[in-house]
Amino acid sequence: MSQRQITLKILRYNPQEAGSEPRLQSYSLETAEAMTLFIALNEIREHQDPTLQFDFVCRAGICGSCAMMVNGRPRLACRTLVAELPDTVVLAPLPFFELIGDLSVNTGKWMRGMSERLHTWLHTMEESPDICRIEERMEPEDAEAVYEMDRCIECGCCVAACGTARMRQDFVGAVGFGKIARFRLDPRDIRTDADYYELIGDDTGVFGCMSLLACHDVCPKSLPLQNQIAFLRRKMAQVSIRRE
Amino acid sequence: MKILMTDVLVIGGGLAGLRAAIGAKRRGHHVLVLSLVPPKRSHSAAAQGGMQASLANVIRGQGDCEDTHFEDTVRGSDWGADQIVARMFVNTAPKAVRELAAWGTPWSRVRRGAHEVIINAEKVTLTERDEAHGLIAQRDFGGTKKWRTCHVSDGTGHAMMFTMSDQLIRHDIEVLERTEALALIHDGERCYGAVVRNLVSGEIFACMAKATMIATGGAGRLYRVTTNAVICEGMGHALALETGIAPLGNMEAVQFHPTGIFPAGILVTEGCRGDGGLLRDVDGHRFMPDYEPEKKDLASRDVVSRRMEQHIRSGKGVPSRFGEHLWLDITLLGAHHIGPKLREVKEICETFLGIDPVHHWIPVRPAQHYTMGGVRTNHTGESPWLKGLFAAGEAACWDLHGFNRLGGNSVAETVVAGMIVGEFIADFCDNPANTVAQPVKLAQEFIRREKDKLEKLLNQPGKENPFRLCTEMQEIMTRCVGIFRSANGLQEGICGLQRLLQRSRSLGISGKSRGSNPELVAAYRLRRMLKLALTIAHGALQRTESRGAHFREDFTRRDDRNWLKRTLAFWPSDPETLLPRLEYEPIDIKAMELPPGWRGYGAKDYIAHPDTTERQFEIEQIKSQTEHCDRFAQQEALMPYTACLPESLRGKNERLDEPLESAQ
Taking the complete model, does pTM exceed 0.80, yes or no? Predict the structure, then answer.
């Protein structure tokens, strides 16, 4: 595609600064071949507005720092090619998460809270294994299945797109379910469905999900969230029936 | 003035920092971690292909052990590595992989029976042993004799980072996210923590600690084309350098990775070639065997990168509107391999290049990748110049990598060094002699100094733009201090960088916010980056030889007689200073287990040191005297190192072919 002029309308607001009001600010930019939103936003910051806030780390789609709303849809800005966008693009910070300023949100804080709440680490019998010894065996398929879910980058897109999260701030979101599914698939983890029920067996967990499944559609890592959430809900429902 | 007190302050939330934090916490110390970003976003997570550890599970890894890993690492370093440290490392690497396995990392596993692989462009059938089924698998990487690289598909760093960060949360260790260290608090002899700045609120305060650790990763962003994340600006290196007391080691040793996608510089893993991928030129010709008949496409990174640039210079590059590049061909691996094993690579190619690597060749060209230089430490990870200051991982010059790091040895170093240095930090804190009253007044003075600096920066009427100066610096580094270096180019680079350093004294900041202010951050980081850039360029100009990744077109041979030594760079405290002061630390051949020789790839021609023959002779003698002993006793006779390791990490490593006796 040849070069063209595009307009980025960016939602500006700095809650740290007294008197700052949310507003859309327009920036005009000449596109270049292979330009991503990472390149575009940095160019704006360097040449037009040094105060513009946004987050990038790896700029290669693997760290999950740069999720934002691009024309109303959550996605990774670094993996968004400007050539695929229309002439006018509206950029806004992810909803749901605490706003730091402009396009920067505090996903880190929320994700840590989620991890603490869902105990997203491997639970084993052996507290300190003998690391001089040959490792415990694992079926290659099991390792692959765990990695499939372990690919989550905690970018927050799934939560930003979630209907339930829009209504309740305490919802654990697809990212949380993905973590539970990951440890549930891991043969090394000793927790049972009854244990997981304690973590996600209510409306803030898997029974709060309305199956709108925007999470599945927007996940930049294409995690199989739809299947995993449905499966988890069935398993958790079984635990709950057994308890009745 | 706010002052937080802790036992251990870890600056940097990547793998090295977090592993050390966990180690110190388990020993009962209070730990505080500072991180520019949420830890899981650290650049450690970008490591793709894998981590070297001599587990010897796969058939092509059979017979692998610490000795082979040690030799590969030392040869890879072009004899710049500290061989004691290399020994400590290779003995701990298998433990690190196994610990992570026990903590949840889903390492790819061995499947029993026959499977087809591509080796040297030919299909080969390998048969994995029954008894290896379900153990951690290894793949091939450059510069190694055996298949040693443990991996989680090609998202190894990500999987390790998530495991580690979740363990950190489990251990209830506090992380101050989006917090940056501005200066180390010290009295010239002892480090007491750091002055830090909250990047959101702008609050400046002090974190005082018994032990302070720098684990901030590399400095790739000094270059225009780099695989490094945008946060890899060398700010940890700068913290040490700006003390004027703690030197940086070997900063001129900068690695360029052969396969950054062109032109963005995003990494595609060495695993592409390890798994059988090939480099091709404008004619589709596989050129590496012409230059490197022994290791071909899998020579060490410094060698492959140089050969690629040499090949482009000879007119064989592929022209494009962004310049010339070469091709990486993984089409011969097939969809059934690329799908599960090179998944990130496929995603990167699809997203950033719009191609499917199953069917199309990938445009690549070498890009800055790794900073071998760092805060010079002894084997415990402590700076011998500033007590209480520790460093580990890419930010440190421990010195595992010498002048060239092997692929798969960086994520390995992060975790291994985290394990080892974490223990030594705990020892340091346990020692009553190191429990001194914290000099709060000193901290306040340092806080005031940093605040004044920032106020001055915000208010000065300068005209220079920090973003633009940074781009100019990156251009100079890529042009003058890159893969091929010469006196003229380096001299030109130094003059340019010095002019930038002078201009950086009149920066003008348009936004006056004391809180979140990207321009202010760019401004204060820029000055530090320029000092690091000058340290690299000056070290490179003085080093009149070629060693590992440091290649001088006017001094093409490795010169052991004059240059088998480590560069130490100190930044003088005089504010007018435009160059670091260099000193050199000799590397003693007589203490080496593996004296200098030919690496097995690359140039065969070098200037030998007179001690080499003598040491070779001694080694032969020791070997013949210890002929009847096992490999461990023989090794111990050549270069004892076990006592250098923390006691908990001294054990031997079990392998299928090397069972441990039941009571070790």
Answer: yes
Total number of residues shown for chain B: 664
pLDDT in tens, B493-552: 999 999 999 999 999 999 888 888 999 999 999 999 999 999 999 999 999 999 999 999
Contact B348 A131 (CB under 8 A): no
Read off the CATH number of the domain in which A175 is found.
1.10.1060.10
Rounded to a whole number, what is the distance in Å from the CA of B429 to chain A's nearest CA?
Answer: 23
Which residues pair with residue B196 across a beta bridge? B181, B205
Q: Which residue of A has its CA nearest to B199?
A: A100
Distances (CA, A) of B140 to A156, A241, B59, B66, B402: 35, 51, 11, 16, 22
To test the contact with chain A by mutation, choose from B48, B66, B103, B109 the residue with the greatest count of A C-beta atoms within 10 A, namely: B109
Looking at the structure, tell me whether residues A100 and A152 fall in a common domain: no
What pLDDT digit, counting tens, does each position of B446-471 carry? 999 999 999 999 999 999 999 999 99
Does one domain contain both A123 and A99?
Answer: no
Q: How many domains does one find in chain A?
A: 2
B257 is catalytic: yes
In a domain, A89, yes or no: yes
Boundary-marking domain end, from A104, A131, A159? A104
C-alpha span between B239 and B194 (Å, rounded): 9
**Position B44, amino acid:** S
ipTM metric? 0.97
pLDDT at B664: 45
Q: Out of A104, A137, A164, pick the residue that ends a domain.
A: A104
* A123/A234 same-domain check: yes
Question: CB of A33 within 8 A of CB of B320?
Answer: no
**Residue B186: active-site member:** no
- Same domain for A97 and A139, yes or no, is no
pLDDT in tens, B344-377: 899 999 999 989 999 999 999 999 999 999 999 9
Q: Are residues A123 and A74 in the same domain?
A: no
Contact (CB, 8 A) for B623 and B634: yes
**SS3 category, B461:** coil
Q: Which residues does residue B206 pair with via DSSP β-bridges, in sequence order?
A: B3, B195
Query: Same domain for A143 and A236?
Result: yes
Q: Is residue A237 assigned to a domain? A: yes
Give B609's pLDDT tier (boundaries 50, 70, 90): very high
Chain A residues with CB inside 8 Å of B201's CB?
16
* Same structural domain, A148 and A97: no
The number of helices, as runs of H, and strands, as runs of E, in chain B is 18, 24
> A212: domain range?
119-243
CA distance B583 to A116: 48
A115 C-beta neighbours (distance < 10 Å), count: 22
Q: Which of A182-196, B89-103, B598-612 has the lowest mean pLDDT?
A: B598-612
Task: Please indicate, yes or no, if residue A33 is contained in any of the structural domains.
Answer: yes
- Are B388 and B434 within 8 A, CB to CB? yes
Instruction: Residue A120: list chain B partners with CB under 8 A.
Output: 166, 169
One-character DSSP codes across B221-247: GGSSSBSS-TT-S-HHHHHHHTTSSSP
Q: CA quadruple B300, B306, B307, B309: dihedral positive or negative?
A: positive
Note whether A237 and A213 are same-domain residues: yes
Residue A114 falls inside a structural domain? no
Query: Which residues of B are less than 8 Å from A188 in CB distance?
Result: 102, 104
Instruction: Return the CATH number at A70.
Output: 3.10.20.30
The shortest CB-CB distance from A116 to any of B169, B177, B515 is to: B169
Residues of B in contact with A119 (CB under 8 A): 170
Residue B236 contacts residue B486 (beta carbons within 8 Å): no
pLDDT digits (tens, 9 = 90+) for B279-328: 999 999 999 999 999 999 999 999 999 999 999 999 999 998 889 999 99
* Burial class of residue A140, CB neighbours in 10 A (0-12, 13-18, 19+): middle
Residue closest to B372 by CA, chosen among B337, B393, B403 = B403
